[in-house]
Design a protein that fits this description.
The chain contains 25 helices and 40 strands. It has 865 residues and is of the alpha+beta class. The protein has a four-stranded parallel beta sheet with strand order 2-1-22-23, with helices on one face. α1 crosses α23, α3 crosses α4 and α22 runs antiparallel to α23. The longest helix is centred in the C-terminal third of the chain and has 19 residues.
Amino acid sequence: MAGYPFKEIERKWQAFWEADKTFRTPADIDLSRPKYYVLDMFPYPSGAGLHVGHPEGYTATDIVARYRRMKGFNVLHPIGWDAFGLPAEQYALKTGTHPRVTTEKNVSRFRNQLKSLGFSYDWDREISTTDPGYYRWTQWIFCKLFERGLAYEAAMPVWWCPELGTTLANEEVVDGLSDIGGHPCEKRNVRQWVLKITEYAERLLTGLDVVDWPESTKRMQRNWIGRSEGADIHFPVVGLPGETIRVFTTRPDTIFGATYLVLAPDHPLVGHVVTPGQREALHAYCSQAARKSELERTSLQKEKTGVFTGSYAVNPATNERIPIWIADYVLVSYGTGAIMAVPGQDERDWEFAEAFDLPILRTVRPPEDFGGKAYTGDGPAINSGFLDGFHVADAKERIIDYLEREGFGERKVNYKLRDWLFSRQRYWGEPLPVIFCDGEAKVLPEDHLPVTLPELEEFKPSGSPQGPLALAEHWLQTTDPETGRLARRETNTMPQWAGSCWYFLRYIDPLNSAQLVDPELEKYWMPVDLYIGGAEHAVLHLLYARFWHMVLYDAGVVASPEPFKKLIHQGMILGEMEYTAYSDSESGVHVSAECIHGGIDSTTGRAVSGQRIDESAVIKDGDHFVLRDAPDIRVEVRAHKMSKSRGNVINPDDIIEAYGADAFRLYEMFMGPLEHVKPWSTRGVEGTYRFLNRVWRLVVENDRVCDAEPSRSQLRLLHRTIERVTGDIEQLHLNTAIAALMEFVNTAKGWDTLPKSIAERFVLLLSPFAPHIAESLWEHLGNTPSLAYTAWPELDREYLKEEDLQIAVQVNGRVRATITIPAEADRSAVLQKAKGEYNVARFLRGKSLRREIYVPGRIVNFVAV
């Protein structure tokens, strides 16, 4: 029998939805109805298009959006494009193609792929960060940040490649060399725009307590913000009157053990404290450090390196001189860029002290059985003057009181969070709405926005850290609209993060040319009720978006302090399972996978080689896979992240062509819990395709549907399915919701007839998951399209009650029989029936019945002696 005509069906309904604007959310909605704002994380339209991992989250949000519409909610389910960014600019440099052309081509491909999956987006609200009508408001928000003192200029280190004549992003520099060409790069301080996100550090922390987010994501954000309590301590520099080195520490109680100070190589005091005899060595060391990434300087560096400045500072607790060193394991971007080194209580400081033969003094007594080096735990203070004998907490309070009293420090809450470096030396990004008059920066007035990008024929680097826009002389020169004086435009552009910080607000009111968003509409729709996206955005995007939203809240633009009420991260979809068989590299004899460690056969000590084999060559043996022709040889089974280099990328277009969008959607959700990592299997899509064929045959073929009244057992199955599917969608347990639909079909296909009222309600339950086939079935049953706003089936709990119950009967705690009773049977009738059972009566005979226990609907227990 031929399969259901999915190609014809899907073409028909996608065309219908588009022409009818079925999923359009009008601007003049009834604000008295409940709302549901369901949002996908802003997609970047890459040239590669979608692979099967991308639609997982989109499918989940679409199911929820369709379900909420049927539940009577006003639903906002929009889509758009985070379309500025480095890849399009790099492609322009290679090919001479304008980034706008590349971006529009990529957007068109993404749009067509999403439409082919039947997602119920309101396409009338489609936005793109590259549209001047959109980034006008991104620039407007920057102006608000500037006006509130949250945007400022500072000289900040960036990667500079002299050979390429351009600044590079961190990911474009590997081991101090440019990813393109392998040219030497160096860190250079360049004028940058910076956003003062640190002003909101505490609110960003406390706001996490009121949102329904994964605990792992909250933990990552808390760690990124990194709140810590301690003290700022000022160490006077010997020979430089009035000059101090400021250090933040969470352990001020250990100050008596501070035997040296360490400055970051790019600390602003380095040039002041270095002595003439050390200047050459220090310059060489700082130049070398400038070629390392922060990761190389901290986590990856095995050996501690450093240079003595020749100068000393005074420890304010001991009044002793201690040396000042430079070392690249200290970062200027963390804390104050300087540390007091207490090797007795800090492992990194101990390693440095050992490397350079510096004094080590313990200030906390370790346990008697402690055999390590630096001790970081609690204990009584030693070698610490007036702190001796006090444990860490008390010692902290006493030393901070002393430092504040003597003018050497103050109590301080510090954050690991750094201000947000907001400049990019790029072309393809939002221009900053800033002009310079006589060297002074000012933002443009609102009626002069947007500042649009100049049309350039070439996108090559300018040869200076100013970026490509420095070459657009006709664009650079302008006038101050307020004074009429000559001015020069800012040549930096915004980072890609900018447009994605507030896009969810523009979806609410995308055509408003007078306001960023209408306040009444914003108050109604926000916050976002459900936000689904990848865990790779757990920190930066979510933190930046929350920061901007809080600023807009303070400015009275939005009514909610947090933008996203509930957040879900979909799990990654890996490539198909790969099967690898191993053999001895010399003899070619197969080696079982459990014997291999580090590419060596542990039984012979010889090297092995692996060969990927087809799935047909293996069979399952318990928890393992073995060779079909050699069952004693295990094979390695593993799924890998999809990548072009591995050749395991699955294109959804191919799956849709072979099995249809509905089968694809069902499989993506049926693979397992939404949040879990899962391997792809094309055979799995074949399974959901077969299920849809069974549904088609059940409703369309065999003339089974009739107008008969459904039986109680049929109604019981229907309402059990309604309960399960409804509850599972509410909990986003979409895989088990599909399982309930499959169980319904497996039972219903055994019925002689399918009452139309049952069939219709089943089709409605199926529709969020497989909308194309559901629309056709709905029409086949005699209904007017579309079912998108048809009421969700109501649950009648009366049909969930069992007519008969089976309960166990125990005598002295041991089951002796099982009885079947009417669900409404009273206690006396149940006990009487239980006593009448032959095996129960046999064990009660000749005994005294002490207690009769009946747990309604569950169990009977007689206690007899």
